[in-house]
Amino acid sequence: MKSLDLTGLKCPLPALMTKRALRREPSGTILEVIADDPLAYIDIPHMCRREGFEVIETQRNGDGVRLLVRRN
C-alpha cells in the first residue's frame, strides 16, 4: 500500500493530488491518503465517486482524516 501525506494543503489540492496519484497507479492499487484540510473528508470521496475510484475506509482523527482509496 502506498501512502500520500497531504498535510498542510488546502482545498482543492488534496482531492486533485489524490486523483493524480491514483491515475498513475495500476488498477487495484490501494492508496492511503492523510490530510488535515477540513473539506478533504468530503472532497476526496466526492472526487472518487466522480472518477470511479473506491473509498475503502475513512477515519477522522482530530483535525485530520485518513482515507484508503482503491483504483478500480
UniProtKB/TrEMBL annotation:
The UniProt entry, under PROSITE patterns, shows: UPF0033
Any one Pfam family here would be TusA
Q: Which CDD domains match?
A: SirA_YedF_YeeD
* Superkingdom of this protein's organism: Bacteria
Q: Which residues form the UPF0033 domain?
A: 4-28
- Family from the record: Belongs to the sulfur carrier protein TusA family.
Name-wise, this protein is Sulfurtransferase TusA family protein
